[in-house]
Design brief:
about 450 residues, alpha/beta, eight-stranded mixed sheet, 10 helices, globular
Length: about 450
């Protein structure tokens, strides 16, 4: 029987979905912080549960070739990264295995990941940053599994513009005695610093505040503009709710623009603050190329894109389809999507406001039969009614783009129950150095000629 603080020797055989090492000690599964597959370690037991236990590496007895010295002073205290102690090749293998394991264990699908597309750049790739601000006025990121802020103005995942904006806000708070929000007391003003950065290096900076205004707002704008000469605008977002949702429902522009233009897949997009846009631009282009490939478009099809955000996938599909319809529940995002279609001269795309399940049901009632349905839901996955509503429309293929293998696998099982089986899967590393991975799955109903052609060609 394992007990807390015991030391045991064990070999690390794999990784959990959260990036922890996996070992077996006295027949019990032990999850190990900071461990690398293939190495033998002395482990200190930290916590014992009924069927599993948690441990940390007390000493590395036989190091793995994939082990690396962490290259960030905030790792692992900051909860932003999970894999700075291993090589990038090992990280990609861990993510590929995570997707296959989830599909097999949760989805009931024994399907190999065709490929995992790694990133050329593993640092400074995030075009959207959300810095929580501690009650002491320090910007950073939450410690793992907590809301304790680890100060970090030099995060390796963020753009230099985002880090500079957070530093400027810290200086503004100190210079003017402006309070930061305290979740326990629900008092204080500044909650988050939210920054979007585009391909040209321009930044849109938003302060999320527990109130309608800030003291000396002109000084805030001055400091941000001095720190970011290419700033596009400074916006206030009012969020007075007791919630984990970052942005509020009301916005006020303090200076400049309240939207930011960016490019993706050769298209230009104008983004409002709440509009969804993939955080890794380069990898998003590869992700959408894979989604278009899985859709098997010939130029004649009707494509329905649920959870369309600012229309990025819809417009990418529209260039290869006869007609593309996007649906989104966020009004600002739908407005952005319509503007983006017009801006790019795309006339075969239209956008509907509404919940994914409701829109699918409504269109099915109108006897619309899309050839391909694309879903790209948030991390929580699809609502329980969506798979059935999509299946009722009778598309030839469903392309599922997912940022969470667990909810993807659950929904793949739901689609299987509705008559759509997973036939192809690929992964894209949208979030290097973190445990997160993006996945694209093609689901078909019956014999799919597009799948059959691809399957035969890959087996030849």
């Amino acid at each position: 029987m394992l007990e807390k603080n015991q030391i045991h020797e064990a070999e690390i055989t794999g990784y959990t979905a959260g990036g922890l090492g996996v070992a077996r000690v006295e027949g019990q599964v032990v999850f190990v912080h900071g461990a690398v597959r293939g190495e033998r370690c002395a482990l200190r037991i930290l916590k014992v549960l009924k069927t599993t236990a948690y441990a940390r590496v007390e000493a590395i007895l036989t190091p793995a070739a994939a082990r690396r010295a962490p290259d960030c002073p905030h790792y692992p205290a900051c909860g932003g990264c999970d894999f700075r102690h291993i090589s990038y090749a090992e990280e990609l293998e861990a993510k590929r295995q995570r997707v296959e394991d989830a599909l097999r264990r949760v989805g009931g699908v024994d399907l190999a990941v065709e490929e995992i597309l790694g990133a050329a750049e593993t640092d400074c790739y995030r075009n959207k940053a959300q810095f929580p601000v501690s009650p002491q006025g320090r910007a950073g990121f939450y410690r793992a599994r907590s809301h304790q802020v680890v100060p970090a103005l030099d995060c390796r995942l963020q753009t230099p513009q985002a880090n500079a904006a957070a530093a400027a806000v810290e200086e503004y708070l100190r210079a003017n005695g402006v309070s930061a929000y305290d979740e326990k007391t629900r008092r204080g003003l500044v909650r988050h610093v939210f920054v979007r950065t585009n391909r040209a290096g321009e930044a849109l900076v938003c302060l999320v505040v527990n109130g309608e205004a800030l003291p000396k707002e002109e000084d805030l704008v001055r400091r941000i503009r001095e720190a970011l000469p290419d700033a596009a605008g400074v916006v206030l977002s009012v969020n007075t709710r007791d919630t984990n949702v970052v942005l509020g429902d009301k916005y006020r522009t303090l200076w400049g623009a309240d939207t930011l233009e960016d490019t993706l897949c050769g298209l230009t997009f104008r983004l409002s603050l709440p509009a969804f846009f993939q955080v890794n631009r380069d990898q998003a282009e590869r992700l959408y190329e894979k989604a278009v490939d899985f859709a098997g478009l010939t130029g004649r099809e009707t494509v329905l894109d649920l959870y369309c955000g600012a229309g990025t996938i819809t417009l990418a599909m529209a260039r290869h389809a006869g007609r593309a319809i996007g649906a989104e529940i966020v009004p600002e995002a739908v407005e952005n999507a319509r503007e983006n279609a017009a801006r790019n001269g795309i006339q075969n795309a239209e956008f509907l406001l509404g919940d994914a399940g409701d829109v699918a049901g409504r269109l099915a009632g109108e006897h619309l039969r899309p050839d391909v349905v694309v879903v790209d839901p948030p991390r929580k996955g699809l609502g329980p009614e969506v798979a059935g509503a999509v299946a009722a429309m009778g598309p030839e293929r469903v392309v599922y783009v997912s940022c969470d293998p667990g909810t993807l696998a659950r929904d793949v099982r739901r689609f299987a129950e509705a008559g759509y089986a997973a036939v192809r899967v690929a992964a894209v590393d949208m979030f290097p150095r973190t445990r997160h991975v993006e996945t694209v799955v093609c689901l078909g109903c019956g014999v799919d000629p597009i799948y059959e052609a691809n399957h035969i060609s890959t087996q030849a």
